[in-house]
Structures are given as structure tokens and as C-alpha cells.
Specification:
The complex is a heterodimer of chains A (130) and B (359). With 130 residues, chain A is α+β, with helices and mostly antiparallel strands. Chain A is built from three helices and six strands, in the order αβαββαβββ. Chain B has one domain: Cytochrome-c3 Hydrogenase, chain B (Orthogonal Bundle). Classes of the chains: A alpha+beta (130), B alpha+beta (359). The site of one iron/sulfur cluster has 14 residues of chain A, from helix 2.
């Protein structure tokens, strides 16, 4: 076997031996996300008018808007994090959080009660796991 | 001559990255015939056009493949744009080119890692993927997604890369390329890779042509065919030549990919130098009516999109011929006559993406 090829890989091996870790050392070190990273959809329930456009346009059918029951519901596992809903929402009340969707083991539906802000400024909004 | 035996191979097999089933008729240790069967991960994505707005269909198309997803979205958008006569802004075309090449780099690096793994060279495998991770970071920084970019849409792109980010990314890419160069040298010169891949799964130029091989599988057999030469997106304004190797064996296909990564780095640099300013999307009005075949070069080869619109928001027909599907014929040809132990390497050498092929 010619000697040169061995030297080739040795260079890389030496670099990894002497250099630092290539891993991001999670969870010991807190991960940083890029500004544009798309993550789970978040809603501001005080702004939503239950128009249902997001549910209609969502390519994955992850959102369900119930006008009568005044709820806005998202199935986290169905959502493909495309951000189409956030783009088209007329009230701009949806944003995609700037991190990764956390892993889940069970129920993934998040239900938000949509209630307009009352006169006193007190807002009765609750998030319940459904 | 030994007795003929049939060995079922796959769809779940330790060496297979994807679910394909092969019935291997063997005599002694030699494969006489390989009969493939597909259909284990069929998802029926093509039928979704019947109930999905044509603009949303781009997101679905992106999910046909978990590696070259951007180019699937691009193929779908290109077809619809052509039918509707939409003129995509110049800047968007360059952005599409940059993201396509980023996809190609990370796809090839993924494959190179798998190839090193198939040869038992585990440290090379992890180093390939270490470099790939940095490319994925660039993708995430510029598009918001690591693999599924979600950056393409009918009429342009959904994101723009501002000048500052572009300069920063290009700077980082220089280091990544230097890093990659040291890994590419191992693929090129190291004894283990050459020993495992050379002379295995040979396909001549004529056979590749006759069987309709595409992408690196065809180029590894000396066919200078690269769909990027059609000039879609901004490729018309960039300078490149198809990478070809003549040997036609697994090692040649490996070398095509090794060299194409360099080519992609170069194309990104060219595109970044030429990218004009201006808008990145145009408003889409009306519905597609008519039909179009869009063709583009994915990391695995040429993909063909057939799209037919009927003037409503739902498309009539949506058909995707993925490169893996075209390369299954050539793969079966390569398998005939090989050693049983070489089967995994040969299957891997076409860079199979079976779930793409079944959509
Ligand atoms: S989130 Fe936005 S788009 Fe969805 S129902 Fe509320 S206001 Fe409408
Ligand atoms: S991000 Fe996309 S998939 Fe998720 S809820 Fe919004 S539109 Fe639906």
C-alpha cells in the first residue's frame, strides 16, 4: 500500500484529535438558532378573529377553527412548519417560534380559546391540552 | 455450476438504507438475476392534487423527498409557472440556483458518508456528515429549514438572502470547502475506498444509454448528460460542464459525486457573484390551464414533472418521474453477474431514494 493515502486520512484524524468537538454539546450548551429558523406555530389569541383562513390554506390540515366554540386548535404532529398560515393570516396573529418543535410522546393537540380583549383590558384566554 | 437458489433481499435489511425488495437468483456466490419489487412506502402524493390548491401543492411536492426536497418544490413551481406564463424575477432564479446547489452538496455528502460506511470506513463516514452539518446550517440560516427549505413557491421564492448574510455564508463556505477537500482526497486516494468500489457493478456507456440511466449513474459511465444544461433557473448564465468518469463502476460513480460537490461550490460562488437585485416574487393571478413537462437535475439525476391544469385551482394531473425510478433498470443490469457480497454496494451506488420513486 502506498504511504501517501495513509497520510491523507491521518491529517483529518489528527485534526479531530487535537481540535475541539464537532458536536454542539447539547444539552450542556444551550443551542442557538438562526434568525430565520421556522419552529412551532404560536398564536396571539387576542388578535385572532376566527376567520378560518389559516385552517383552509394549511397544506397539512393541521389547524381547526371552531367559530361557534371560539377555539383555535393545532395538531402539532400534523404541522409541517411551512409558515403558510403565518403568511396569510389577515390579523398577523400567527408567528413561528424561533426554535425546533420539542419531541412529544403523546397527545399533540393544542387548543386555544379565542376571546377578544374585554373592556377592562383583562383577557380571559386559556390554553388547554385537548 | 451450483444449484440455483433465490435469496430474498430487503425491504428491511441491515445494509439497505431504503425499502426495496430484490429477489436474487444466485448460483454459488454469483447473482444470476435480480428482480426488484417496489411499493412498500407508497404515499399517493400525486393524487393529492385533486384536493389541494396548486400553490399549496408545492409544499407537498417538497416532501416527496427528504433530501433533495428543494428541487422537488422547484420542479413543481417551474411547471406551473410555465403553464401560466409567469416570468420569475431574475433574483429569484439565482436564489433558486444557490439553494439547489446547496441541496446537491448536502445530498452528495450524505451519500459519500453512506458509501464510506458501506466500505467499513466509519471515520470517513462521520467526517463526511460533519461537513454536511455545516451545509445544513447554511441552509437553515438562509431558508429557515435544514432539509425541507420551504423557500420555493409559484412565482418566485419565499425568502431573500440579504447581502450581508450572503457575504457571511460565502466566507464560511470557503472554510467548508477546504475541509471538504481533505475528505475528498481520502475518497480519491485512499486504498480502502478504491479497493471496495473499483471494478464492482460495471456498466458500459452503451448499456447506460440503452437503459436510460440518469444523473451520476449515467455520468459515471461516460455519458455527458446533465439537465442543468437546459438552463432552467439561473443555470443558463453560469459556467459549468457535466462531470464525467469513464470506468462505469461504483468507484467512477463515487468520483462523479466527489467532483460534483466541488462543482456545486463553484456554481454557488458564480451565482452569488452575479445575483442581481430586485424583487424575489411576482403575484400569481388566475389558474393554470394547459400542460407542461418540467425537467431538472437533482443530485440523483434528472427528475421529470408532468403537470396538467384545467383552469381551476386544482390540477388535473401531477406526475413525477424521479431519478431513482429511472436508475432501477440500470441497477438490475449491474446486479446480474455480481458477487452476492457486492449487492449492497451496487444498490447504494445509484444513490437510491426509494420513497421518492414511490411518491
Ligand atoms: S389565526 Fe389568523 S387566519 Fe387563522 S382564524 Fe385567526 S385571524 Fe384567521
Ligand atoms: S405552519 Fe404550515 S402546516 Fe403548520 S399549521 Fe401553519 S400552514 Fe399548517
Amino acid at each position: 500500500m502506498p504511504l501517501l493515502p495513509i497520510v491523507k486520512m491521518t491529517k483529518t484524524v489528527m485534526k479531530s484529535l487535537l481540535g475541539g468537538s464537532a458536536c454542539k454539546m447539547y444539552p450542556a450548551r444551550k443551542p442557538t438558532f438562526f434568525g430565520g429558523t421556522r419552529g412551532p406555530v404560536e398564536i396571539d389569541p387576542s388578535k385572532c378573529v376566527l376567520c378560518g383562513l389559516c385552517a383552509k390554506k394549511c397544506p397539512a390540515g393541521a389547524i381547526a377553527v371552531d367559530r361557534e366554540g371560539k377555539t383555535w386548535e393545532i395538531d402539532r404532529l400534523k404541522c409541517i412548519v411551512c409558515s403558510l398560515c403565518a403568511d396569510i393570516c389577515p390579523k398577523k396573529c400567527l408567528v413561528l417560534r424561533n426554535d425546533y418543535t420539542p419531541p412529544v410522546t403523546g397527545e399533540t393537540k393544542d387548543v386555544f380559546r379565542i376571546e377578544p380583549v374585554s373592556k377592562e383590558g383583562h383577557q380571559d384566554q386559556g390554553k388547554s391540552k385537548g | 455450476m451450483g444449484k440455483r437458489t433465490v435469496i430474498p433481499f430487503g425491504p428491511q435489511h441491515p445494509v439497505l438504507p431504503e425499502p426495496i425488495h430484490l429477489d436474487l437468483a444466485i448460483e454459488d456466490e454469483r447473482v444470476v438475476e435480480a428482480i426488484p419489487s417496489l411499493g412498500f412506502v407508497h404515499r399517493g402524493l400525486e393524487l393529492l392534487v385533486e384536493k389541494m390548491d396548486f400553490q399549496e401543492m408545492v409544499f407537498v411536492a417538497e416532501r416527496i423527498c427528504g433530501i433533495c426536497s428543494f428541487m422537488h418544490g422547484l420542479g413543481c413551481s417551474l411547471g406551473i409557472e410555465e403553464i401560466m406564463g409567469i416570468e420569475v424575477p431574475e433574483r429569484a432564479r439565482y436564489l433558486r440556483t444557490i439553494w439547489s446547489e446547496l441541496s446537491r452538496i448536502h445530498s452528495h455528502l450524505l451519500w459519500l458518508g453512506l458509501a464510506a460506511d458501506a466500505a467499513g470506513f466509519e471515520s470517513l463516514f462521520t467526517h463526511s456528515w460533519r461537513v454536511r452539518e455545516k451545509i445544513l446550517d447554511i441552509a437553515e440560516e438562509t431558508t429557515g429549514g435544514r432539509v425541507i427549505f420551504g423557500a420555493c413557491k409559484v412565482g418566485g421564492t419565499r425568502r431573500d438572502i440579504d447581502g450581508e448574510t450572503l457575504v457571511r455564508v460565502l466566507g464560511r463556505m470557503k472554510d467548508i470547502e477546504a475541509d471538504y477537500r481533505s475528505i475528498a482526497a481520502v475518497f480519491r486516494d485512499d486504498y480502502s475506498m478504491r479497493h471496495r468500489f473499483s471494478g464492482v457493478g460495471v456498466m458500459s456507456r452503451e448499456e447506460a444509454r440503452e437503459l436510460g440511466a440518469v444523473g451520476p449513474t449515467a455520468r459515471g459511465s461516460g455519458i455527458a448528460r446533465d439537465t442543468r444544461e437546459l438552463g432552467y433557473a439561473a443555470y443558463g448564465g453560469l459556467d459549468f460542464e457535466p462531470v464525467i468518469e469513464d470506468a462505469g463502476d461504483c468507484y467512477a460513480r463515487c468520483m462523479v459525486r466527489v467532483r460534483e460537490v466541488h462543482q456545486s461550490f463553484d456554481l454557488i460562488r458564480q451565482a452569488a457573484a452575479k445575483i442581481p437585485g430586485g424583487p424575489v416574487e411576482v403575484k400569481v393571478k388566475g389558474f393554470p390551464e394547459g400542460e407542461y413537462f418540467s425537467r431538472l437535475e437533482q443530485p440523483r439525476g434528472e427528475v421529470i414533472y408532468y403537470i396538467r391544469g384545467n383552469g381551476t385551482k386544482f390540477l388535473d394531473r401531477f406526475r413525477v418521474r424521479t431519478p431513482t425510478f429511472a436508475n432501477i433498470g440500470p441497477m438490475v443490469k449491474m446486479l446480474a453477474g455480481c458477487e452476492l457480497a457486492d449487492v449492497p454496494v451496487i444498490v447504494l451506488s445509484i444513490d437510491p431514494c426509494i420513497s421518492c420513486a414511490e411518491r
